[in-house]
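Q: Please design a sequence for this.
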């Protein structure tokens, strides 16, 4: 891990995003108790509507938890407020270069925690979900989310529930009201197909939810605020896509490929609520792209031209995080692009549609019809689209225990890959993080042999 830590420590933007991700608990407590803001829980990248109300704060539930390295991250945060993140990052890199034992070890521990602590928390919440009676045949992601609500659900003023075409997901959302001290449920039904008046219906459903959010917020809805937020959200999406398609496809990386994968994982986690502050997140994404490009321009990083690009997906319902490290050790570079596969990185079309709510309805309808929705044909086309865009040399598909929706599309996808891309692909089964690492190692070893 220290190789990954060594690299990440030099990206001040990654430190900032990681810090904001892992210290969400203090940030959110401050918002709730001092600034009297209301917390709205969201899952998947469905936070945008909440940003239409300045006194509502969207939160992906894992961020209300305390993480075990909190104390060091707090020191780092205090140092950054005095010296600035860039100086803290330069200092950490300097200390690591000196190789001072204890200090260097602490830095490794901080960064290792960014990497491991979220996954440990996921597993802890998964266990809590099971102990609390979540049906055992749900996927890993749902079980962990359920555990997060059992543990911290009382802190939210509302749960914003978007129905998607996965029946297990919708059942899970229904079950939230049976948890002790349930938060208010605000529902947005997304019609499963874009036929007839589906878009108008979705726009109405969004307006119904806005009226509910107005009651929680105590403020009237203001279209201009939402429109301005969507501009920020689109900037974030464009920075994300620059990293995915411009930087990840280049022959020279700004860091080693394992670090690059790690950054993609951090982005995948933090994109769901933009770390509860979209403007700050947009600024950090802008610096991340700038830092990456500067490093490439100055030839700081690694020539990866001979390393096959391996697309690993899906990860949003659970996947084995050791995979990218293993692929790196086996000579490849692992890429994660779930949010674009599911079409959450498309622009919200505010330049074409004047009503921001209608524009958002169109964005959601597109994601449901061609991405997150569980139409196997459309979804496998979306996997193909992204595999082509990143010039994937191979594809690894995680089939989740308990997933009868997304996981089912692998056989169709495999056939399309064989016909159109002629690259190797495999599926790996997944139940819980860390449970099957040896088997994953063996399968990946055999898979990567094909590129020798
Ligand atoms: S589609 Fe699969 S992975 Fe996603 S929530 Fe439904 S069961 Fe879980």
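A: Design:
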């Amino acid at each position: 891990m220290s190789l990954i830590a060594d690299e990440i420590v030099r990206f001040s933007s990654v430190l900032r995003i990681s810090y904001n991700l892992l210290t969400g608990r203090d940030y959110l407590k401050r918002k709730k108790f001092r600034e009297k803001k209301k917390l709205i829980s969201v899952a998947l990248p469905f936070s945008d509507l909440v940003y239409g109300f300045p006194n509502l704060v969207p939160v992906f539930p894992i961020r209300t938890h305390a993480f075990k390295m909190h104390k060091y991250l707090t020191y780092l945060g205090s140092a950054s407020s005095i010296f600035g993140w860039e100086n803290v990052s330069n200092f950490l890199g300097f200390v690591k270069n000196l190789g001072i034992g204890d200090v260097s070890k602490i830095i490794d521990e901080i960064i290792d925690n960014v990497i491991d602590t979220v996954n440990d928390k996921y597993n802890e919440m998964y266990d809590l979900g099971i102990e609390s009676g979540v049906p055992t045949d749900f996927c890993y992601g749902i079980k962990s989310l359920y555990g997060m609500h059992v543990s911290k659900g009382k802190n939210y003023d509302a749960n914003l529930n978007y129905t998607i075409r996965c029946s297990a997901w919708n059942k899970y959302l229904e079950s939230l009201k049976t948890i002790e001290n349930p938060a208010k449920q605000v529902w947005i039904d997304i019609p499963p197909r874009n036929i007839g008046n589906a878009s108008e219906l979705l726009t109405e459903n969004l307006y119904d939810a806005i009226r509910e959010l107005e009651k929680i917020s105590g403020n009237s809805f203001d279209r201009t605020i939402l429109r301005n937020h969507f501009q920020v959200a689109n900037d974030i999406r464009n920075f994300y896509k620059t990293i995915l398609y411009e930087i990840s496809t280049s022959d020279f990386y700004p860091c080693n490929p394992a670090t690059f994968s790690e950054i993609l994982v951090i982005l995948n986690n933090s994109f769901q609520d933009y770390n509860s502050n979209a403007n700050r997140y947009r600024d950090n994404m802008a610096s991340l792209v700038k830092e990456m490009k500067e490093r490439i321009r100055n030839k700081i990083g690694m020539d990866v031209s001979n390393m096959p690009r391996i697309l690993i997906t899906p990860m949003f319902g659970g996947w084995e995080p050791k995979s990218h490290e293993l692929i790196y050790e086996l000579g490849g570079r692992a890429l994660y692009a779930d949010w674009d596969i599911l079409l959450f990185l498309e622009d919200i079309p505010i330049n074409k549609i004047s009503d921001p709510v209608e524009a958002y309805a169109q964005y959601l309808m597109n994601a449901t019809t061609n991405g997150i929705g569980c139409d196997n044909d459309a979804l496998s086309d979306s996997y193909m689209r992204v595999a082509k865009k990143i010039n994937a040399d191979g594809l690894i598909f995680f089939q989740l225990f308990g997933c009868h929706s997304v996981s089912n599309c692998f056989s169709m996808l495999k056939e399309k890959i064989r016909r159109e891309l002629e690259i190797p692909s495999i599926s790996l089964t997944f139940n819980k993080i860390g449970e099957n690492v040896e088997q994953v190692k063996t399968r990946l070893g055999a898979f990567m042999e094909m590129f020798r």
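Q: Thanks. Anything notable?
A: The CA atoms of residues 204 and 358 lie 9 Å apart. The two ends are 25 Å apart (CA to CA).
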